[in-house]
User: What shape does this take?
Amino acid sequence: MHSAPEIGERMDSKPEKRNTAVEHTHHPWDVQQLCLHNSIVAVIRMDVAVSGEMPLPAQGKKKKKNFVSQPRAKKRQVHRPTLPLIRCVIFDLDDTLYDCLGQRVSVTHRYAAQAMVDAGLKADTEAVYRARMRAFRIDPMLRHIDAEVTRHFRAENPEEISRVAREAYFNCPVGKLTLFPGSLPLLRFLAKRGVRNFIVSFGEPKTQHAKVKALGLDREPSVEKIYFADRSNVLTKEAAFRKVQKRTRLIPGEILVVGDRPMREIRTGRELGMHTVRLLHGEFKSQMPVGPEEEPDHVVKSISEIRRLPFAWGSASSK
Assistant: This one.
């Protein structure tokens, strides 16, 4: 009877070989085979997972951040200032709608110089004319011009010669006159928007009527009415402005006054509570306002600029 074999021995007493698969794991080619085996297994598992029979291994999923929605900021509303509504414009005539300095002043001073010589001033007309123009540059308001000229030429009867000169200056015959290039376009621009246009002229009424006719303003449809303020103060500019306001039944804040003289139409317009625009041109260009009461709301160099000023033009329906 044979005894039981020892562990690791066979019945025939030969050493027992170890598991072949285990032994082969130590060879390099067996390592490659194992890697291939693992890859095949991974592919099989993937196929199974895709078919829905087995879930894929859990992967670290990035958690979505929970954003708290912020309310949108409201757009800031820009409030534009309300433009003053202008429903009526009062225009001066000389050096406002036409170039009085270039078309009339030289002619009238020469006419007055001739009248002074005819009245007995001992000088020739050209010399008197030059003296008047020098005095005019110093005193465009004509307050002292005649007295200065009579004193310069040592007139024997200065008061009478001054009176004759002044009458001649304001009654000089009117020849051909032309408006500023922008005058008619502005008048018609305003009229199309429902603005009522008036003209208030100052001077000798007969001469001013002749100027208006020469300029074609007496038959211009965009002009509603023309008032003639006179040197005798039968009708002052203030009275004419009040007539316009009464006729239109507008508040002063809806009326604009346009002129070139601070101490006349600008001052009067401000005193009545109307808007004012000064045209910086002509005889009184160098005249400075004496105070706030003569300061215009706006100053322009050309009448064409007025339509671009910050006003709303038109009737109440265009507010």
